[in-house]
Amino acid sequence: MPLRDHFHPPVSKRSSWEGFHGQWPAMIVQHLIRVLPAGYVAEPRIHLGPFFEIDVTTFASTERVDTAEEERGGVATVPWTATQPMFEVEADWPDQYEYEVLVFDQERERRLVAAVELVSPANKDRAESRRAFVTKCAALLQKRVSVAIVDLVTARQFNLYADLLEWIGQQDPALGTDPPTIYAVSMRFQKPPTRSVFQSWPHTLVVGQPLPTLPLWLSHDFSVPLDLESSYEDTCRVLRIS
After folding, report:
1. What is the pLDDT of residue 121?
2. In what order do the strands lie in the sheet with 110-118?
């Protein structure tokens, strides 16, 4: 099914972007549950401070999970493998000044490994808002959290993925001189013994065309598919967006 334009008629007259933005993360979580291995859990709408939020997060747990019950009567599936990076450069991550206090619940032993960010109009309306969004994504990547950005906002002419590349002093030639307004990209930053590497899997989105499947990295050598098309269509179905 095609991608709709949620910011212009006729869709904008029948359904609000706020309602769609609130429902889609829950649908993404439902779809991720089907592909996440034991020991991982996805949650929607985790807030980081008063201004930032991660719309979908994936945590790794050291708690042992008994999957015997799940395996009985289960259906074998073909393992999903991510493609090679569509963009890769050596990158020295800029230093950041952070003043924070982190408190962890040791009873739950959770570690953040991946985040899916759904861009809102507010993320793109002012220079300081765009800078705050980019800084948040950069901080997550620097902590080895893989990040996927999904931007359906046709009402603002900015590309936050391009802004992030500029922040680390890089440029993706595939973006050209006029980066697309709507796009989806999966990213990760690795620091092996020999060199630091930024990798990304960018896709230009087109109204009327299906959404892509992105790799969501849970570790340096293991990813699961983030099927945007399926979760998007389920969200539209629930909200009766034709």
Report:
1. 87
2. 40-48, 52-61, 110-118, 146-151, 183-190, 197-204, 87-90
